Amino acid sequence: MKPQRNTPIFPSFFSLLKDNVQNSGVLNSKRKRNLKAELFNKKASDPINEPDEILHALELKTGQAIADIGSGGGYFTLRFAETVGVKGHVFAVDTNPDFLSFIQNAAKEKELLNVETILTKKDNPNLPEKSVDLVFMRNVCHHLANRPEYFKRLKNALETGGRVAIIEYRRTSGLSLHNLFGHSLSKETIIKEMQEAGYQLEKDLEFLPQQSFTIFSQESVPILKEASG
Length: 229
Ligand SMILES: C[S@@+](CC[C@H](N)C(=O)[O-])C[C@H]1O[C@@H](n2cnc3c(N)ncnc32)[C@H](O)[C@@H]1O
Prior knowledge:
With 229 residues, the protein is α/β, with parallel strands linked by helices. It has one domain: Vaccinia Virus protein VP39 (Rossmann fold), CATH 3.40.50. The protein has eight helices and seven strands. It has a seven-stranded mixed β-sheet, with helices on both faces. The longest helix has 13 residues. It is globular. It starts with 12 loop residues before the first helix and ends in an 11-residue tail after the last strand. The structure holds S-adenosylmethionine. S-adenosylmethionine (SAM) binds next to α2 and β2.
């Protein structure tokens, strides 16, 4: 007698999908997955993109307030929140509400109570006045339609002595996907537009393999001494 076959040789599409979903953790994890946010985090945390060195170069201090504009999956938001500690504050700012709820859940899981999410419009960071010591934008500026105007608006959100850190894929003459899809900006353009908006270049860091990394401060207004006599 032929043995009874219980398992089909060719599993149905639905059983494949079920296995895939179970293995990926969607059914097991309490947290709803967001593949795009996870992909952003995978890239941001990849040692090839030097996340620890980025953190080090930013010279963050305990108690500082940071805005991670275009926070994506929130890899840097959470690293900042751990670094500035309970007395500090981190705003995750994005135009995509799903990314923000992904970050909220991740912060809750890590018991990071100093993370606040802000849903924003394309042309406005929507941050409270004088609320942050550092604005961080990684792979975001190329999305902004009118960068000099946006950079000027950002100044309202900066505390005295506040800084803006910008990381962008370099625009190169070679063929690359970032260039092809317009997801890159030349460092010269960033510096020119930031200077137009009234910032000065503090640091031009060259350790990232594919990206420029510049840090700006607000241009100090010279104090005019009254002429005596
Ligand atoms: C390429 S991802 C970078 C994510 C994250 N900064 C990182 O390095 O992993 C760009 C992010 O910017 C957000 N974004 C695009 N335009 C924006 C805008 N005008 N204001 C705020 N966020 C924006 C997108 O929704 C997305 O989350």
